[in-house]
Structures are given as C-alpha cells and as structure tokens.
Amino acid sequence: MRLRRAPDGTGDGVLATQPFATGDTVMVGFLIGELTGNDSHATQVGPDRWARHGGLGPKVNHSCDPNCGVRLNEGHAFDFVARRAIAAGGELTFDYAMRNFTIDHFPAICLCGAERCRGSVTGWKDLPAARKADYGELVAPYLRAMDERSAAVATPVP
Ligand SMILES: [Zn+2]
C-alpha cells in the first residue's frame, strides 16, 4: 500500500501496490487507542465504542460504490477486504456506512464521484436496504444488531 498525498491534504488516498482478487484481505487493520467518544478520525468499533486505527487505514477514502468492505479482526480492528478485483495502482475505498451507524463529523455532500453516489455521506442507519444487502458480511457486525434495536424502539406497542 502506498499513500497518495495531495498538496492541500484533501486528495490523500491509499493506493494498492499489487493486484487483489475479490475476497482478498487487502490491508490488516490495527488499533492505536480507545476513545471516549466519536470524532472526525474515530472508527466505530461497537454500538457505543470508538477507537483510533493506526497505519494507512484512516487514509482510505469513502466511496458510495467502494472496492473494499470491512471485516472485524481478532484485535478488534477492521481489515479491508476486496469486494471486487483491484488493480495495482488502484485506489482503495470503502463506505463509511460499513462501520458507522451515523455520520456526525463529515460534510453532508459526498464527492466520491461514483455513478451510484448517494449524494451525501450517510451512516448505516440511512443506507438503502438494497445497499445493505449488497455489502453482505463485509460490514461491521454490530450494525445489524443496532438496526434491530432501533426498529424495536420505533415499533409502537399495540
Ligand atoms: Zn458518494
């Protein structure tokens, strides 16, 4: 993996230095600290837990049609897993909604440029059901449990 740096910092991204096939673990994640709450560089690692990832993980950009998904590993950090073939030199992307139930610290307008861009960076909570199905198992395991919890709260008792 190699970091692409832009002069103003807004074009930073992570590029593959070798090709990957669908299902390959592209990058192993590791945590460098627990946080007491969410911030713009935090990763949600549980329903009410946030942490900081080390390495290049925090530099992977959001896309509404990403080439990577995420998988929780034994260190409670997220690995990036290829959702489709990635060529050497290709930029790694994932959907922030794969880890965050809500997005609190990003601009509302999404500039990912994907054909199927949602127009704004939303959390899992606001992801269309078809996208949730599309992402399959390559999302944080707590998100579907949080869906059930909020559905239970929202359902009126007859
Ligand atoms: Zn987008």
From TrEMBL:
It comes from the Bacteria. PANTHER family: HISTONE-LYSINE N-METHYLTRANSFERASE-RELATED, SET DOMAIN-CONTAINING PROTEIN. Gene3D superfamilies: SET domain. CDD domains: SET_SMYD. It comes from Patulibacter medicamentivorans. The keyword Nucleus does not apply. GO terms for molecular function: transferase activity. The lineage of its organism: Bacteria, Bacillati, Actinomycetota, Thermoleophilia, Solirubrobacterales. This is Nuclear protein SET. Residues 110-122 form the Post-SET domain. Keywords: S-adenosyl-L-methionine, Transferase. The keyword S-adenosyl-L-methionine applies. It holds the Pfam family SET. Residues 1-97 form the SET domain.
